[in-house]
């Protein structure tokens, strides 16, 4: 009987060795990433528990985003968006890091996402409405409202939606 266990023991030991090597390689690559000035900010924020390590990549596993959207998010998380700040401080190809729209603050990822006064007038509202459209889509789906589109990003909410049974009404952009 022991003769049968030896190949399994060798196989188990080999698997453990492979797993250990992969874990060490992953740690080496993570540390290299973490030590990058800008690109490492995201992984450092995970380590400082500013970002949930458990949930941070969950959206990738769901598969409900377009490939282009996934790419843009990963690029943004890794601080690799071609901003003027990035071009000035990292690439050394620009001399002025001020935002090309408002011309007041450094054009960083964070500035573009949430602080530019020019973008705040229209683009942030459009982004807000897209997020709300996804929520609307999910609520309609959960409550039995008939939907015209298969994907949330194609969904255009109607001001009033009623479930098939008529017992749920979902409002969009309405005062309550």
Summarize the structure in words.
This protein has 176 residues and is mainly alpha-helical. The protein has a domain at 123-171. 54% of the residues lie in helices and 3% in strands. The chain has a two-stranded antiparallel ribbon. A hairpin with a 6-residue loop joins strand 1 (160-162) and strand 2 (169-171).
Strand elements, count: 2
Provide the β-strand percentage band. under 5%
Question: What ranges have pLDDT less than 50 throughout 5 or more consecutive residues?
Answer: none
Can you list the strand order of the major beta sheet? 1-2
Oligomer: single chain
Shape: flat
Kindly name the structural category.
Answer: mainly alpha
What is the overall pLDDT average? 83
Please, how many helices? 8
Kindly list the characteristics that best describe this protein:
single chain, 176 residues, mainly alpha, two-stranded antiparallel sheet, 54% helix, flat
Compact description:
Helix content is 54%, strand content 3%. It has 176 residues and is mainly alpha-helical. The protein has a domain at 123-171.
SSE topology:
Blueprint: H1 2-34, H2 41-47, H3 58-62, H4 67-77, H5 84-91, H6 109-114, H7 117-120, H8 123-143, E1 160-162, E2 169-171
Antiparallel strand pairs: 1-2
């Amino acid at each position: 009987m022991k003769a049968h266990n030896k190949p399994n023991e060798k196989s188990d030991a080999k698997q453990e060795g492979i797993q250990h090597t992969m874990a060490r390689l992953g740690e080496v690559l993570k540390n290299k990433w973490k030590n990058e000035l800008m690109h490492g900010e995201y992984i450092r924020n995970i380590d400082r528990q500013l970002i949930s390590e458990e949930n941070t990549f969950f959206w990738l596993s769901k598969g409900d985003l377009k490939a282009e959207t996934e790419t843009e998010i990963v690029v943004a998380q890794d601080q690799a968006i071609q901003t003027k700040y990035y071009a000035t401080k990292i690439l050394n190809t620009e001399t002025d890091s001020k935002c090309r729209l408002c011309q007041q603050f450094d054009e960083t990822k964070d500035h573009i996402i949430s602080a530019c006064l020019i973008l705040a007038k229209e683009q942030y509202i459009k982004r807000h409405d897209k997020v709300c459209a996804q929520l609307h889509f999910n609520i309609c789906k959960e409550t039995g409202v008939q939907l015209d589109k298969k994907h949330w990003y194609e969904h255009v909410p109607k001001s009033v939606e009623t479930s098939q049974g008529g017992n749920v009404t979902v409002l969009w952009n309405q005062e309550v």
